[in-house]
Amino acid sequence: MFSCTGANETMKGKTNSYEFAKVYDQITEQSQDEWLFLIEKIARIEKNELLNVLDLGTGTGKMAIAFAELGCAVTGIDQSKEMLKVAREKSWMVPHIAWVGKKIEDFKPKTKFDLIVSIDVFNHFLEPKIMEKVCREARKHLNENGLLIFNIATQRHVQDMLDSLGYGDVVNSDTEFIWLDKLNGKDWSIKLKVLERMHGNLFKEKEYRVDQRVYELEEVKQILKKAGFKKIKIYGDRKLKEATLKNREWLFVCKSEP
Ligand SMILES: C[S@@+](CC[C@H](N)C(=O)[O-])C[C@H]1O[C@@H](n2cnc3c(N)ncnc32)[C@H](O)[C@@H]1O
């Protein structure tokens, strides 16, 4: 890591700022290929066609664009206009994508989907009731054999992050970041500091905060049952192996019924 010599300017940022959206892809793992591979595999197992896809909390559109490039008709929804602006900029050449700027819990789609996917979003629902509402709505908007697939970071993941001193990386010669996790009961917040070179050795430090919630396995199972899902498979750590309490991440695959 380079050190920040010279003057620096500290700014409190918001995660709905365009500047945050622009660094988002750089600071998050570029794992959409891994997700795509896994989801396509699950879709084959579940005999799902993947023609119409809805991406909840699409962010900068990583998954949505990947599915559209496969030939699916995709709708990506996000409450952040700034994230969607980046998604639009990235996808102007990609056909069959509709971007919707709305809260997921307020979205009432007019069509049904073969796949409703949501990656790194469900921990953002600070109340179980909101997750239940989203899942209930999703179930109503799935075609026969349609799938709702979402991941959840576990308490184990947060604990690992807390046990380390912080997670960070050098993005390029002008940008580096560090993020620090905090857990209070089920309230999980991430403080993200981004250092951006202004010129020479002068850096601007921006701080962002993301509030999330930790969910227990049984809690999510109950939420899905209340939302009306009967066929639920839960995998752990991006492998097609049954979830355990040791996992750092769970993947929920919920199938609609005729
Ligand atoms: C960690 S990002 C994940 C983005 C994307 N799914 C990905 O894998 O890169 C979480 C996204 O969910 C969005 N989000 C969180 N809660 C939301 C809500 N209630 N309604 C709409 N968007 C939401 C945020 O704006 C953000 O873009």
Question: Your description of this structure?
Answer:
- The structure is a single chain.
- The chain has 258 residues and is of the alpha/beta class.
- The chain folds into 2 domains: 8-25 and 156-213, S-adenosyl-L-methionine-dependent methyltransferases (N-terminal domain of TfIIb, Single Sheet); 32-154 and 215-255, Vaccinia Virus protein VP39 (Rossmann fold).
- Helices cover 29% and strands 36% of the residues.
- The protein contains 7 helices and 12 strands.
- Helix 3 (62-69) links the parallel strand 2 and strand 3.
- The radius of gyration is 19 Å and the shape is globular.
- Residues 1-11 have low confidence and may be disordered.
- Bound molecules: S-adenosylmethionine (SAM).
- S-adenosylmethionine (SAM) binds at residues 28, 57-59, 62-63, 78-80, 83, 103-105, 119-121, 124.
